[in-house]
Amino acid sequence: MDRVTINQHVSFSKMIQGFWRAHSWEWSPQQLNKYLHELVDRGITTMDHADIYGDYSCEGIFGEALKLSPELRDKIEIVSKCGIVLPSDKLTWTNGHRYDHSQQHIEQSVNRSLSELNVDYLDSLLIHRPSPLMDPNEITEALKNLVTAGKVKSFGVSNFNKSQYDLLNNHLVCDKLHITLNQLELSPYTLDAFEDGTINHMYKDDVKIMAWSPLAGGKLFSADDAKAQRIMTTIESLAQKYQVTTSGIIMAWLNKHPSQVMPVLGTHQINRVDDALVGMNIKLTDQEWFDIYTASLGHDIP
Ligand SMILES: NC(=O)c1ccc[n+]([C@@H]2O[C@H](COP(=O)([O-])OP(=O)(O)OC[C@H]3O[C@@H](n4cnc5c(N)ncnc54)[C@H](OP(=O)(O)O)[C@@H]3O)[C@@H](O)[C@H]2O)c1
């Protein structure tokens, strides 16, 4: 498994496992622990979380599984996110739906994540979504405290466009911090980050891309979605040519981009992880890459 350097302290596996859906798997800590070992055995060592996943429950589910094999902590990288507040009766501060990028909320959220995950530090902390009220000074102060306390080893954002990234990063670099990651929705179904220049802008600054919902959350396999059908017709013929599954071709498509895109898988079926992994060794031609791209656009490129 290739590795991607995030900063001088942190590197990620090229393929990442996401835990957004972990509450719906209804696994015992033993079952999740077994899955973690299967992932690590395959070189998938980076685990993606957020405070809010599963009504604030997924980090705790993961933490219980990790407790069964404490030695795993040194073999994996844990990413978590903060900044979204969702209504929940679990916590006192979750009394509405809003974004909160205040210093107090960021630090409070990270402390809770560490406790739920049963770890001392996050390999990376991401601001989950940009906010119209975002004050880069507050985020910088929170981050400085978290880095100084050894609780966060690298820092990134998610769903940030170019100007939102610039606003925050220009403040951070004054304090010798900087954004190393942008986690974006990216798949053959969702091309926005290519079309609006976000990916180019990140590449210019050596900000690594994590692609969330690389299979469009399973929508690509939906029989009653015309756009998905159009894309999958092209992907299926390539799957036949290369003798792999369609998800393998999708991974090969993401992997072809020069900016070292890291897909964040959402499956909990290890055979599907294996299908995706095979695709990382497939080298699509430029024409094949564009055939998928234009199938998604629904028209030819100019
Ligand atoms: N930053 C953000 O705003 C944001 C937003 C959403 C997600 N994320 C992150 O991205 C991760 C992945 O998102 P996602 O779950 O939507 O990813 P995905 O890999 O695009 O979709 C996974 C879903 O597709 C299903 N699926 C159906 N057919 C499949 C096949 N042939 N191969 C693999 N999966 C298939 C899976 O079910 P099975 O489990 O049964 O295989 C699962 O429910 C999340 O866990 C989270 O960490 C981030």
Automatic annotation (TrEMBL):
Source organism phylogeny: Bacteria, Bacillati, Bacillota, Bacilli, Bacillales
Family: Belongs to the aldo/keto reductase family. Aldo/keto reductase 2 subfamily.
Gene Ontology cellular component terms for the protein in this record: cytosol
SUPFAM superfamilies: NAD(P)-linked oxidoreductase
Alphabetic keyword roster: NADP, Oxidoreductase
Membrane-traversing stretches: none
Pfam families registered for this protein in UniProt: Aldo_ket_red
Cross-referenced InterPro entries: AKR (IPR020471), AKR_Detox_Biosynth (IPR050523), NAD(P)_OxRdtase_dom_sf (IPR036812), NADP_OxRdtase_dom (IPR023210)
Coiled-coil stretches noted in the UniProt entry, renumbered to this chain: none
Protein name as annotated: Aldo/keto reductase
GO molecular function, one term: oxidoreductase activity
Superkingdom of this protein's organism: Bacteria
Domain NADP-dependent oxidoreductase residues, every copy: 15-292
